[in-house]
Amino acid sequence: RYSHNELGLRDDPIMDPKPDTVFRVLNIGDSATWGLSLPGRMHTYSDRLEEALNTDPGGPEQLTYDVINAGTVGYSSWQAPRWLEFYIDELKPDVVTVFIGNNDSAPSGTSDTKRGSVPFSSITRTLSHNVFYLLLQKAWLNLGKRARDEEREQFMASVGSQKQNVTKEQWYHSVARVEPQDYESNLRAIIEIARK
What we know:
47% of the residues lie in helices and 11% in strands. By secondary structure, the chain is mainly α. A three-stranded parallel sheet has the order 2-1-3, with helices on both faces.
């Protein structure tokens, strides 16, 4: 059994407004941050860090540490800055940690950038709770699926061919959810959002 708070995070309810005596750490990431395959929530690095910080005899007595587990199973580095952009003002973290990238090189029919590029992100946040909108989005993505699948199959066939050497750049461009240069850009975006 898993429980989630009001933001869908695997954590306790968020103290809002954040008390002045709370130092908040926001751990953003993928399933590794969320704690996939761990026996329980208390084994996640977010909960263990919170426990360690709050039991440290050398820490300030008047300060309480609140470590928020903002890991989401399946997220790539493309989704992380977008999520952070939506919630950073609401959560008001003092520190943001990032542990993401496990899903970036995963094979996909469409890169996350193409799949999720929607110009009105604030509207998208509201619409993402609407079943009709989600069905329309899925239908839109499926319109170009056949062409993408054929292109990917041709590429995968060429990977198995001994006549053609396939570079890692070609592999990432044709198959991966996030290309390496986009991974770097996504991490820089997370840093910029956190600094602001």
